[in-house]
């Protein structure tokens, strides 16, 4: 009987690997040719014809000195830095905006109601994103007017645009940060005292802001927990007095907690309170 142990490997896989190796070889060849052209190297690798001189120069790394003395890299390097910065957008969204406080309050509210999966995580995150957009709209508008549009119109350099982007976020975070948290991280980092809060370095401000947001979120969550905790205690006491100790109090208290939350228009009150806590 003929051995077919390798018959399950499709032949197209070998063809794909061969084509992939050819593409990689061509890519390496072109990159070496471009590098040789840009560095004006007179030594050519073996097998490379004189037609390499027809390749355009890839002056990707260039440094331009502006009239005011500042230096600026070429557009290709700026695009590379921009694409690298995009990977930090989730961290920036979570840690430098109102996202942290809102999502923690929503999670504590769901736990206080006794609901494990409703609203789902997707719904909570979606609500948090849109409420964060609502709260951060003034900051976003200022960034667009002061940094993005002038940079697109080539009225300011990239360094100036970055400074103008950081300024509104710095002002927003410093307004939500407690003095005690700010002093704590300044002491840890051995940063000298500053005259105004606007001079606080961003590396100190961000952890201070996160710590303040966590503290504020848990304070709001504690206040939310109290009325639902009272309902749980009352239901548990009634069931124990009636001798129904085998019945879970959560089954009885859950409808009352949902009814209380709906009757007081809890969602509107909660979102209004969260927006007002940021000065909106």
3D architecture notes:
This protein has ten helices and two strands, in the order H-E-E-H-H-H-H-H-H-H-H-H. With 280 residues, it is mostly helical. A hairpin with a 5-residue loop joins strand 1 (63-65) and strand 2. It is elongated and about 75 Å long.
Order of helices and strands: HEEHHHHHHHHH
Q: What value does the Rg take, in angstroms?
A: 30 Å
Strand content: under 5%
Class inferred from helices and paired strands: mainly alpha
- Count the DSSP helices: 10
Which parts are unreliable, with pLDDT below 50 for 5 consecutive residues or more? Answer: 1-14, 37-58
Helix content: 55-70%
Q: Order of strands side by side in the largest beta sheet?
A: 1-2
| End-to-end gap | 80 Å
Key structural traits:
single chain, 280 residues, mainly alpha, two-stranded antiparallel sheet, 10 helices, 2 strands, elongated, disordered N terminus
Summarize the structure.
68% of the residues lie in helices and 2% in strands. A two-stranded antiparallel ribbon has the order 1-2. It has 280 residues and is mainly α.
Produce the secondary structure layout:
Layout: H1 11-38, E1 63-65, E2 71-73, H2 75-86, H3 89-95, H4 99-113, H5 121-152, H6 158-175, H7 179-188, H8 202-241, H9 249-263, H10 266-277
Antiparallel strand pairs: 1-2
């Amino acid at each position: 009987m003929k051995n077919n142990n390798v018959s399950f490997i499709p032949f197209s896989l070998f063809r794909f690997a061969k084509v992939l190796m050819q593409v990689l070889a061509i890519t390496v060849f072109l990159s070496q040719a471009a590098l040789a052209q840009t560095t004006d190297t007179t030594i050519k690798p073996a097998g490379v014809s004189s037609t390499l001189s027809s390749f355009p120069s890839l002056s990707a790394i260039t440094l331009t000195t502006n009239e005011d003395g500042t230096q600026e890299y070429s557009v290709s390097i700026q695009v590379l830095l921009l694409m690298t910065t995009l990977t930090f957008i989730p961290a920036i969204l979570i840690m430098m905006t109102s996202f942290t406080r809102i999502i923690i309050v929503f999670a504590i509210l769901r736990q206080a109601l006794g609901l494990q999966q409703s609203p789902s995580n997707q719904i909570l995150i979606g609500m948090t994103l849109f409420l964060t957009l609502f709260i951060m709209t003034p900051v976003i508008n200022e960034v667009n007017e002061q940094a993005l549009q002038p940079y697109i119109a080539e009225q300011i350099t990239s360094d100036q645009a970055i400074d103008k982007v950081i300024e509104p976020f710095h002002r927003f975070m410093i307004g939500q940060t407690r003095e005690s948290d700010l002093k704590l991280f300044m002491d840890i980092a051995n940063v000298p005292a500053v005259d105004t809060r606007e001079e606080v370095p961003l590396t100190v401000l961000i952890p201070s802001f996160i710590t303040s947001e966590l503290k504020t979120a848990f304070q709001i969550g504690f206040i939310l927990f109290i009325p639902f905790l009272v309902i749980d205690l009352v239901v548990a006491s009634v069931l124990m007095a009636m001798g129904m100790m085998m019945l879970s109090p959560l089954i009885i208290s859950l409808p009352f907690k949902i009814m209380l939350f709906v009757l007081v228009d809890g969602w509107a009150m909660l979102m209004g309170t969260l927006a007002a806590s940021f000065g909106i």
